[in-house]
């Protein structure tokens, strides 16, 4: 199979779908790998690095989209990229379709077979292709929040760890999954006063055992959530419903109870955000202020640490890319029900139920597509 990757064009997105080492793995299995010139520069990989690993460098993204049977990316295809997709082509990348009706409509119209990293599952309902980026985003959320709290960036002027004789900042982490756990780890490491909210007793028990007295856990009832948000200097939104739009847990009304200059970091923004007042921002202009509260809602946070993120992502996406290339998409999905859960759109049909429900499409089960 001819597999290609392109330079990401989303604002300040420096990751790349295939590292030179991943290109070598595909080439070693007998596949052609086409790489748009300059695609790897954001991670420090030159065109020559790809050529040494057996890839072919092509001049433009158009060459990749026109010439490759499968296109491997990182972020959802932008409008210009979607216009180059064609019927029968395989698109393997993050999609986050539920809050993005325009992208969904374009993918349906194109006839492409679109496999989304974020809905591929693992044993026990895990999301292994989302996990490494959730780990990165969770850790970055504290860095970003700490910076936004600085007075020069519009925040309260609070140092999360405090100093002797001055209380540390209060951090509320909404959601105790991968993002929330990693955010809490970073915040605890800085010496902040950390509270993690979740609705699962099992998650709360696990977090309580891990953090012991270094972080507090709290059941995420409406009252507890409102109180924790009101007390916090920094709130991390870390909730996820796989493939579906995130619930709006922090309302605009709640902003009025918060301390002026407090910060909200919405890590769920890829799925529409979990704060009512959120809208997606970029690394170029990462924050905005609503009712005196600083919002950080960058939709591709891991792109800022592109080298770490790309290698972490390729570690989990490459095995499935190889399976698809080796077997063809249909045989690969039949052989692996976890990979089959990644199929979101095929030949003009929406094959992921949460997306179909959210955006009003007829839902066609993957089993029906696979026959």
TrEMBL record:
<feature type="binding site">
    <location>
        <position position="75"/>
    </location>
    <ligand>
        <name>substrate</name>
    </ligand>
</feature>
<feature type="domain" description="Alanine dehydrogenase/pyridine nucleotide transhydrogenase N-terminal">
    <location>
        <begin position="4"/>
        <end position="137"/>
    </location>
</feature>
<dbReference type="InterPro" id="IPR036291">
    <property type="entry name" value="NAD(P)-bd_dom_sf"/>
</dbReference>
<dbReference type="InterPro" id="IPR008141">
    <property type="entry name" value="Ala_DH"/>
</dbReference>
<feature type="binding site">
    <location>
        <begin position="239"/>
        <end position="240"/>
    </location>
    <ligand>
        <name>NAD(+)</name>
    </ligand>
</feature>
<feature type="domain" description="Alanine dehydrogenase/pyridine nucleotide transhydrogenase NAD(H)-binding">
    <location>
        <begin position="149"/>
        <end position="297"/>
    </location>
</feature>
<dbReference type="InterPro" id="IPR008143">
    <property type="entry name" value="Ala_DH/PNT_CS2"/>
</dbReference>
<feature type="binding site">
    <location>
        <position position="220"/>
    </location>
    <ligand>
        <name>NAD(+)</name>
    </ligand>
</feature>
<feature type="active site" description="Proton donor/acceptor">
    <location>
        <position position="96"/>
    </location>
</feature>
<dbReference type="InterPro" id="IPR007886">
    <property type="entry name" value="AlaDH/PNT_N"/>
</dbReference>
<protein>
    <recommendedName>
        <fullName>Alanine dehydrogenase</fullName>
        <ecNumber>1.4.1.1</ecNumber>
    </recommendedName>
</protein>
<feature type="binding site">
    <location>
        <position position="134"/>
    </location>
    <ligand>
        <name>NAD(+)</name>
    </ligand>
</feature>
<dbReference type="Pfam" id="PF01262">
    <property type="entry name" value="AlaDh_PNT_C"/>
</dbReference>
<feature type="binding site">
    <location>
        <position position="15"/>
    </location>
    <ligand>
        <name>substrate</name>
    </ligand>
</feature>
<keyword id="KW-0547">Nucleotide-binding</keyword>
<feature type="binding site">
    <location>
        <begin position="298"/>
        <end position="301"/>
    </location>
    <ligand>
        <name>NAD(+)</name>
    </ligand>
</feature>
<dbReference type="GO" id="GO:0042853">
    <property type="term" value="P:L-alanine catabolic process"/>
</dbReference>
<dbReference type="GO" id="GO:0005886">
    <property type="term" value="C:plasma membrane"/>
</dbReference>
<dbReference type="Pfam" id="PF05222">
    <property type="entry name" value="AlaDh_PNT_N"/>
</dbReference>
<dbReference type="GO" id="GO:0000286">
    <property type="term" value="F:alanine dehydrogenase activity"/>
</dbReference>
<feature type="binding site">
    <location>
        <begin position="267"/>
        <end position="270"/>
    </location>
    <ligand>
        <name>NAD(+)</name>
    </ligand>
</feature>
<comment type="similarity">
    <text>Belongs to the AlaDH/PNT family.</text>
</comment>
<dbReference type="InterPro" id="IPR007698">
    <property type="entry name" value="AlaDH/PNT_NAD(H)-bd"/>
</dbReference>
<keyword id="KW-0560">Oxidoreductase</keyword>
<dbReference type="GO" id="GO:0000166">
    <property type="term" value="F:nucleotide binding"/>
</dbReference>
<feature type="binding site">
    <location>
        <position position="198"/>
    </location>
    <ligand>
        <name>NAD(+)</name>
    </ligand>
</feature>
<feature type="active site" description="Proton donor/acceptor">
    <location>
        <position position="270"/>
    </location>
</feature>
<keyword id="KW-0520">NAD</keyword>
């Amino acid at each position: 199979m001819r597999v290609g990757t392109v330079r990401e064009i989303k604002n300040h997105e420096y990751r790349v779908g295939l590292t030179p080492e991943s290109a070598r793995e595909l080439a070693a299995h007998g596949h052609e790998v086409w790489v748009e010139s300059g695609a790897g520069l954001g991670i420090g990989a030159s065109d020559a690095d790809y050529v040494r690993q057996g890839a072919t460098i092509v001049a433009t993204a158009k060459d990749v989209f026109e010439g490759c049977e499968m296109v491997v990316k990182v972020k959802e295809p932008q409008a210009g990229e979607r216009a180059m997709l064609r019927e029968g082509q395989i698109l393997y990348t993050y999609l986050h379709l539920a809050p993005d009706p325009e992208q969904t409509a374009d993918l349906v119209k194109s006839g492409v077979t679109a496999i989304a990293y974020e809905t591929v599952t693992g044993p026990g309902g895990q999301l292994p292709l989302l996990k490494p980026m959730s780990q990165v985003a969770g850790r970055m959320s504290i860095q970003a929040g700490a910076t936004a709290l600085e007075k020069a960036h519009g925040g309260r002027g609070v140092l999360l760890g405090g100093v002797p004789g001055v209380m540390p900042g209060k951090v509320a982490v909404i959601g105790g999954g991968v993002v929330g756990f990693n955010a809490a780890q970073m915040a605890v490491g800085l010496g902040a006063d950390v509270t993690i909210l979740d609705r699962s007793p099992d998650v709360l028990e696990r977090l309580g055992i891990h953090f012991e007295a270094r972080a507090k856990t709290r059941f995420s009832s409406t009252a507890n959530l409102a109180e924790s948000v009101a007390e916090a200097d920094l709130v991390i939104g870390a909730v996820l419903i796989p493939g579906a739009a995130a619930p709006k847990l922090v309302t605009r009304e709640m902003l009025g109870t918060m301390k002026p200059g407090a910060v909200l970091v919405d890590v769920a923004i890829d799925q529409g955000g979990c704060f009512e007042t959120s809208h997606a921002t970029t690394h170029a202009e990462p924050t905005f202020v609503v009712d005196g509260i600083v919002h950080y809602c960058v939709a591709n946070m891991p792109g800022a640490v592109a080298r770490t993120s790309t290698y972490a992502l390729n570690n989990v996406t490459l095995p499935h890319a190889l399976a698809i290339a080796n077997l063809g998409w249909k045989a690969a999905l039949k052989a692996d029900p976890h990979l089959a859960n990644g199929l979101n759109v095929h030949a003009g049909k929406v094959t992921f139920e949460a997306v179909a429900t959210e955006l009003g499409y007829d839902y066609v089960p993957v089993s029906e597509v696979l026959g």
